[in-house]
Amino acid sequence: MNYSDYVREQDSKSEGFQKTVSVLKNIKGKKCLLYFHDDPDGLTAGAIMEKLLEKCGAFVTKRIPDTMELEKFRIDEEMKYKKHDVLFIVDKATMGYYNNYASLVREVVIIDHHPLIGDFPGKCIVFNPSVPNYTMCSAAFLCNMLAEMMGLRDDKDDLLALIGLKGDWAIEPATGIAAPYVKVFYDEMTHKYPYMLKKIKSRPTMFEVNQRAVTTVLNQIGEFYFALSGGGFQYFYNDRIPEMSDKSQVAFAYLTLTEIKVEDYDTFDGFLKLVSFRDLAKKIYDCFLNDWSRSEKLFENTILLKDLGAAKVFLFAGSSVPLMPMVGSVKLYELGSPCVLIMFNWLGEKNGVHISFRANTDYLHCGEIASQLTEKLVAKFDNKGIISGGGHPRAAEFRTRTSGVSYFDALKEFCDIFAVKAGGK
Ligand SMILES: [Mn+2]
Most exposed among 42, 93, 238, 364, judged by the fewest C-beta atoms under 10 Å? Predict the structure, then answer.
């Protein structure tokens, strides 16, 4: 089956997809407020969507806030200046409370691939293949499917979707793996972009966490946009690059993405040559590479916390360690299997404690530890929403942010939870 047929088949199976397409068919002349996530998938999704809406004759106001969930105050602010007709929430989670936004505009469209949190927001149009069952894909891919259904998909949409899929780990060209939902598209792209998706021997990128021998030019480009955008983690280098002191790195990343030249790049250098504002972009990328090597060295101090027999649990602790979860994922590969790596990062009084969990086994459920830690600390210190954490069996995050909870308190609660989990094993 070709991609075009596949998209039509998916459309026939999904009410949310159909409804989103019908909104787009009637969008001419309407004022649209478009929010998207500030990571590479969110930015590529936003780039495809903004272009698509404009092609459809809509008026678009785009916003890229630095929080994952879309807070109501942001919409209220916008509506003070302009009455928007349609609100698009792209790659910013599917939250039950988004249902309340339905009264603010004529239509709310959620385009997302994260699992539903809370009750289904029935007053919104929800195009999300992960509701009800988790489906690995990416928001940029969903926007590409919309462009295809509208008959407006172009080569740039394909390139952007590839970068988004890579950014969210839904395709792994270095090992030839693609998530089932995106496989038809990916297979077609291996013919359209054979050089970009070909295995090459070069410095392993942040995406090489299952092997370190080969990479692809797409992985290199994906890592480049991760660096430029701050990866959704706000890793910004404004203080190190004078030209960036008054600029938003996310806005800059978005601009270079929208201006990307469509080609089947056979080398990363070839790609860099054609990037808009190349010199500035390279400076940001170099800062990222420096941070990466600095963190890699710090990770040499990883220690064995406990050997549980069926899995080894490792501990890393540092202060303001840049790129921690990403470098940790690579470290986990080095540590072998089955392993769990727990990383503590002290981010200063203002930002508190950040704990990342990565595992290559399901033996300890990282997401459960992170949510239990959240529950216990919220019960003790309040600050619900500020202290937050959770995730998947093999990857989870936890943060105390501005709650004022001390490193000791976070560490103590973690140890109590770990003692129960490890003791029972
Ligand atoms: Mn995403």
Answer: 238
Rg value, the chain, Cα: 21
Cα of 137 vs centre of ligand 1, distance in Å, is 8
- Rounded to an integer, what distance in angstroms lies between the CA atom of residue 104 and that of residue 262? 38
User: Ligand 1 centroid to 113 CA: how many Å?
Assistant: 7
Report the separation in Å between the CA atom of 138 and the middle of ligand 1, taken as the mean of its atom positions.
Answer: 5
Domain ranges (residues) in the chain: 3-161, 186-297, 302-423
**Which of 356, 352, 355 shows the shortest CA–CA distance to 381?**
352
Ligand 1 center to 168 CA (angstroms): 6
Percent above pLDDT 70 for the chain? 100
Q: How far is the CA of 42 from the centre of ligand 1 (A)?
A: 6
Q: How far is the CA of 166 from the centre of ligand 1 (A)?
A: 10
Exposure string over 350-383, b if 16+ CB within 10 A, otherwise e: eebbbbbbbbbeebbbbbbbbbbbbbbbbeebeb
In angstroms, what is the span from residue 416 Cα to ligand 1's centroid? 33
Contact 366, 392 (CB under 8 A): yes
Q: Give me ligand 1 centre to Cα 172, in Å.
A: 15
Q: Does domain 302-423 have CATH number 3.30.70.1350?
A: no
Work out the average pLDDT over 339-343.
98
Class of domain 3-161: alpha beta
Structural contact between residues 342 and 357, judged by C-beta atoms closer than 8 angstroms: yes
Cβ-count burial 181-194 (b if 16+ within 10 Å, e if not): bbebbbeebeeebe
Q: What share of the chain is helix, strand, coil (3-state, %, to 5)?
A: 45, 15, 35
CA of 139 relative to ligand 1 center, distance in Å: 5
H/E element, 95: strand 94-95
Span 230-279, pLDDT tens digits? 998 889 999 999 999 999 999 999 999 999 999 999 999 999 999 999 99
Distance 167 CA to ligand 1 centre (A): 8
